[in-house]
UniProtKB/TrEMBL annotation:
GO molecular function: hydrolase activity
Superkingdom field: Bacteria
A Pfam entry, by short name: NAGPA
Domain Calcineurin-like phosphoesterase span(s) in chain numbering: 776-952
Alphabetic keyword roster: Signal
Chain intervals for the UniProt region annotation (Disordered): 1139-1175
Species per Swiss-Prot/TrEMBL record: Georgenia soli
Chain intervals with Low complexity compositional bias: 1139-1148
Record domain Phosphodiester glycosidase: where: 231-401
Name of the protein described by the UniProt record: Calcineurin-like phosphoesterase family protein
Gene3D superfamilies in the record: 3.60.21.10
């Protein structure tokens, strides 16, 4: 479309800069509703993954999360988050089509320029559909806008100094320098006016103020208290009514003005006389209809402008495309873990990437605010996350309006009432509430009444074969119920219009999680909110609505519904505890709740002389000292200059110190030295597992109370073993000196800790092997040996593991990090020697760096010894990707490797010869242990990585798995159809209890490329497990099989196996350990089955439950194999004595052995009892 030029240039005289963006807008015209943008059917009001046409990856950023929604005809909102080299950026973009005749803009404020209000308050009741914060302003003083502002052709604030501004004139948009100045004429004398409603009047100048100024004092504009010469003159109806030598709070006559002068300007005003006629004019430098000024131009003619840079902050910028037809309003958030903010230069580069040819920077930082009314909505909502934590009151805002009709129904849509992408998921037997949404020409929500139907591929509307059904409906909403896994389309028809959205019915409910594991309230009347999420066995999630929940809590607390998916728990007592019980379809979730917190002493350090000093790669001393009030204290001095590896200085208690109660946290006074050292408390939990409670880095000097939070779910009681001062930064070198005292526990009333129901992902084989899979990949990790001790137990353990792996003859070995402990050259030399001697050329291997591979060094030293830290290898249809989290996250290893991952996944998606991907990196995205100490440190990165892999499976229809280590325990989970296997330690002592994966060993993955393509609608669990399973090989020093030597016919006993390893650790043979159960005369029931199969001549064994049932007389052998070690037990089942029947044809009512296990065996359908006397 040709856009005739109206104004080709708009330049500040003498500045030599042209900032115009040219483009004319067509005249306003009556437009049929069908022509209005957005009038076509909207399948989903918010489109996840739609980048709005913006190139958000032009800067090389990764892990994009983006969505776009229409706001009004000609106005769209795109929200994004992305990971850049320097951190996360979160932003929002309004794209305004300035050729849309129904779209307009105005500058809004609270009614006066010096009464700031939030952007939401400014637009309230105005009819605006979107807005952003406006001018910089005189914050904390007059609050008046700084720079010229024009709206509807009226100057609101005018400054004689020109500044870059966004302007509109007769529909033509530009970025130009804008100012406003005027004259005061009294008789034949004319004085220059420096502007209108200015926050400050320049020295020796005159400014004019009107009623739009408000009630703010004129002292600051007058330069008081520094200015010594000030005068004011009040003008009403073009006549001077008062002249004074003061400023102060203004009192404006109706339609009048106040002139304010400083220095020479004040002297000019004193020359005026009461009743003297004057003429005041103030005009903008350009005849604009709208103008809003900024401080600097960021983009000129498609390139970076010349401006001083500034540190990162939240920012708001207005940009125009080259033809002037589109306004791009961009905000970025700041000062948070997921939004660092941008420098001016970075923001300018972003605007260029977004398509801005010219752009101006307006107020940012805590002022940055964007609000919008999304399509289908009725109210304007906050879109961004203000960096102050809440909306800042600001001087004004740039608001968008739509003149399109708000009442006429032009379209309909349907959506879940709950927010969030997972709201489009529903579990079988549970409900999802949807609502029909009417859309006006303006895309505002309007009344629509119709009917809802559900269809699935191949089914009729509301047919019995649909994956979901309409359980109940009104004319505006419906409750759907999931039936069988698969897609379901929900359609809403009203007034001849149709809208639809897609839902997914997940696999059967596997487990339920609560939004909080524990609630601790301070006092009576306090409240907390609980939401529930249901998960299927593939790790897909869906919010659970309260209508599917039975909730209860004992006295002292109440629980009440709070919306569609939440409960509010209220404390009705000042001190107490209870357990909230929430039941969903037979699955129960328990959440402990307490009210009232007290502090109790842990130790007064009176025995300080008995504490001892220990260290890791450091030297130092522990001495008794005094606290700030003279109480006993301990002083730790340490020299952290002798190594670049992780160093530690420890104060070790003479005996473990019991910590009272069930603490929420432990506090301690620390006299800091501002070195940035990391304080940690070593405790042992109720399961006997050593845990570290983390405190903040010591960045302060002097005494300060420091809090060490106890993770929710920690088994009690706790004992305190040592205070640790750590230094993990290889670049930090210093001598430290800290003192600590007053160790106390923050204790809530004791509460019965619910026993967590473990989630045992079936990707780990518990009965059988992966020998039948086409590919096998061995995984070992966390041996953590040092080169200076080649004969150590950890080296021997590593050698033994490698020997076992070589004996299995896998296709590939992946060493998934922490083979060595300190990353020293001597460590790598020993690692190479061990691998050469134990593996050689027998098995190809990839070595993935863990945190201990760079302990005290850099990744370059590892790469010099073992090659690239990242690898991409294709193994007969399966792509293997290894990545580097040695510094705690993928981001810390450089964005190149995340790009490598994204690009490699894209390649697999389009390559028909590749059917699946296995990704290896050391740190898991989610730590299965309560302390959460071993997961990727950047939690948003972790979530984005999970989403990336889940999205790959959903979009490509191909399989993917992630394999990690580092935790010190074997574990597995699934998320969004992705199997996630965590390998435990292959040498170092584990970090969990034996029954929770805390044993040593290695993992053998079985992969079948022929099963990798799962398509758009995979069969829950089955398709995932047919492609990949994990066989966990525990190290076995000895194996005991506990089976009774004799069972009565029909009797059931529990069979157990126990592995002993590493000098006495006893590990139950159960998930996550793999085993192979077999025997003669024994039927092995499927480990995943709930019904036992018949047909065994003597015994039936269910490895999932350990139940062994005698089903026939004779002798059988039960055999258990773990990692190549086999034990077997012979079991005899004597023939049952057949009782004589008192009445022929009638069997005894109770079989031999009574009504216990035999009766239960009958209930399970073992067949006709051999002792019966049937007719």
């Amino acid at each position: 479309m040709h856009l005739p030029a109206r104004r080709l240039t708009a330049a500040l005289a003498g500045a030599g800069l042209c900032l115009a963006t040219v483009g004319a807008l067509p005249a306003l015209a009556t437009t049929d509703s069908a022509e209005i943008a957005g009038a076509e059917a909207l399948a989903d009001l918010v489109t996840v993954g739609d980048d709005g046409g913006f190139d958000l990856g032009a800067d090389g950023s990764v892990l994009h999360e983006v969505s776009t929604t229409a706001v009004a005809p000609g106005l769209d909102l795109t929200s994004f988050q992305r990971l850049e080299e320097k951190g996360w950026t979160s932003g929002n973009i309004l794209r305004a089509d300035l050729t849309e005749p129904t779209l307009s803009m105005r500058v809004l404020d609270s009614g006066t320029t010096t009464a700031p209000a939030t952007v939401l308050d400014q637009v309230k009741g105005s009819g605006a559909v979107a807005a952003v914060n406006g001018n910089h302003f005189d914050m904390n003083f007059t609050n008046a806008p700084i720079f010229t502002t024009v709206s509807d052709g009226e100057i609101i604030n005018g400054y004689s100094q020109p500044y870059p501004a966004f302007t509109l004139t007769d529909g033509v948009a530009a970025v130009e320098y804008l100012s406003a100045s005027g004259t005061l004429t009294a008789g034949d004398v004319t004085h220059e006016l420096a502007g209108l409603n200015r926050a400050t009047v320049p020295a020796n100048s005159i400014g004019v103020y009107n009623e739009r100024w408000g009630s703010a004092s004129l002292d600051r504009p007058a330069g008081l208290p520094g200015e010594t010469d000030v005068a004011t003159a009040v003008v009403s109806g073009g006549v001077v009514t008062a002249v004074a030598d003061t400023a102060g709070e203004p009192v404006f006559p109706d339609g009048g003005q106040i002139l304010l002068g400083r220095g020479a300007g004040a002297r000019a005003l004193r020359a005026l006389e009461v009743a003297q006629a004057v003429e005041i004019t103030v005009e903008p430098s350009s005849d604009v209809d709208l103008g809003i000024g900024g401080n600097v131009p960021l983009v000129l003619d498609g390139a970076l402008a010349d401006f001083p840079d500034e540190p990162v902050a939240a920012r708001t910028v207005l940009g125009l495309t080259e033809d002037g037809s589109e306004l791009i309003v961009a905000t970025v958030d700041g000062r948070s873990a997921t939004a660092r903010g941008l420098t001016r230069v970075e923001m300018a580069e972003l605007m260029i990437d977004l398509g801005a040819h010219n752009a101006v920077n307006i107020d940012g930082g805590g002022s940055t605010t964007m609000v919008a009314r999304p399509a289908g909505g009725t109210d304007v909502e906050l879109v961004n996350v203000p960096s102050d934590g809440s909306q800042r009151v600001v001087a004004n805002s740039l608001a968008f309006f739509s003149s399109a009709d708000t009442a006429k129904l032009t379209d309909v849509a349907v959506r879940p009432v709950l927010d969030g992408e997972d709201a489009h998921h529903v579990l079988p037997g549970l409900r999802r509430t949807v609502e029909g949404v009417g859309l006006s020409e303006q895309l505002a929500g309007t009344d629509a009444r119709g009917r809802f139907t559900v269809t699935s591929p191949g089914s009729l509307p509301n047919g019995k074969d649909a994956n979901a059904v309409v359980a109940e409906q009104t004319r505006t909403g419906a409750v759907l119920e999931g039936v069988t896994p698969g897609p379901a389309t929900v359609t809403f028809k009203a007034s001849g219009l149709t809208g639809a959205t897609n839902l997914t019915v997940l696999g059967p409910l596997d487990h339920v999680t609560a939004s909080t594991q524990q609630i601790a309230m301070e006092g009576e009347g306090d409240t907390a909110t609980i939401r529930l999420t249901g998960h299927d066995a593939d790790g897909f999630s869906a919010p659970i609505e309260i209508a599917d929940v039975e909730a209860s809590v004992p006295g002292g607390f109440t629980i009440e519904p709070a919306g569609l998916d939440a409960f509010t728990v209220t404390a009705t007592t000042a001190s107490g505890s209870a357990v909230v019980q929430l039941a969903v379809a037979g699955t129960v979730v328990q959440v402990p709740v307490t009210v009232g917190l007290t502090t109790k002493p842990v130790t007064d350090l009176a025995d300080g002389a008995s504490w001892r000093f220990e260290q890791a790669r450091a030297s130092g001393a522990l001495t008794v000292a005094q606290g700030p009030d003279g109480q006993p204290a301990l002083r730790l001095t340490h020299d952290f200059t002798t190594s670049t590896a992780t160093r530690g200085s420890y104060a070790v208690a003479p005996a473990p110190i019991p910590v009272p109660g069930q603490p929420q946290a432990i506090t301690m006074l620390i006299d800091g030295d501002a070195t940035g050292a990391w304080p940690r408390l070593q405790v042992r939990d109720g399961d006997g597992v050593v845990k570290q409670l983390d405190g903040p880095m010591i960045t302060w000097e002097g005494w300060k109370e420091t809090t060490f939070t106890v993770p929710a779910g920690t088994p009690f009681p706790l004992t305190l073993e040592r205070v640790r001062i750590m230094e993990t930064r290889s670049t930090a070198s210093y001598r430290g000196d800290i003192t600590f005292t007053d160790i106390r526990a923050v204790v809530a009333p004791d509460v019965e800790q619910p026993v967590a129901v473990p989630v045992h992902d079936p990707v780990i084989v518990t009965d059988g092997t992966v020998d039948g899979f086409a590919q096998r990949i061995a995984v070992m990790s966390d041996a953590q040996f040092v080169g200076r001790a080649p004969g150590s137990d950890t080296v021997a353990a590593a050698r033994r593991t490698l020997q076992e792996i070589v004996a299995e003859d896998p296709d590939l070995l992946v060493i998934n990090g922490d083979l060595v402990d300190e990353g020293a050259p001597v460590d790598f030399d020993l690692a190479r020697r061990v691998l050469d001697e134990e593996v050689g050329d027998a098995v190809p291997y990839l070595y993935v760096p863990g945190n201990h591979e760079i302990m005290g060094g850099s990744i370059e030293e590892f790469e010099a010894a073992f090659g690239p830290a990242q690898n991409v290898v294709d193994v007969d249809g399966t792509r293997v990707i290894t990545l580097d989290t040695s510094a705690g996250s993928l981001r810390a290893g450089g964005l190149d490797q995340i790009r490598l991952l994204e690009d490699s996944l894209a390649e697999v998606a389009s390559d028909p010869t590749l059917t699946g991907v296995v990704v290896f990196f050391h740190h898991p995205t989610e730590d299965p242990l309560p302390a959460d100490a071993s997961q990727i440190s950047d939690r948003h990165e972790a979530a984005a990585l999970d989403a990336l892999l889940g999205d790959f499976r959903a979009r490509s229809g191909k399989s993917v798995a992630a394999v990690n280590a580092h935790v010190g325990a074997f574990h597995a989970r699934s998320f969004e159809g992705v199997s996630n296997v965590v390998n435990g330690n292959s040498g170092k002592s584990p970090a969990s209890t034996p029954d929770k994966g805390g044993f040593t060993g290695w993992t053998l993955l079985g992969v079948d490329p022929a099963e990798g393509v799962v398509g758009a609608n995979p069969v829950p669990v089955t398709d995932r497990l047919q492609w990949l399973r994990a066989e966990v090989h525990a190290r076995v020093d000895s194996l005991v099989l506990d089976v009774p030597a004799e069972l009565a016919l029909g009797e059931t006993a529990v069979v157990t196996g126990t592995v002993t390893q590493d000098g006495g650790r006893q590990v139950p043979v159960a998930w996550p350990m793999s085993a192979d159960w077999s025997g003669e005369g024994v039927t092995i029931a499927p480990a995943s089955g709930t019904e036992l199969e018949g047909g065994a001549s003597v015994l039936r064994l269910n490895p999932a439950t350990g139940e062994l049932t005698a089903v026939g007389s004779g002798t059988a052998t039960v055999r258990l194999t773990v990692n190549g070690v086999t034990e077997e037990v012979t079991v005899t089942v004597p023939e049952a004595e057949v009782p004589e029947c008192e009445t022929p044809g009638h069997a005894p009512t109770t079989p031999p052995g009574g009504s216990g296990g035999n009766a239960k065996a009958l209930e399970r359908g073992l067949g006709r009892p051999p002792w019966g006397c049937g007719a």
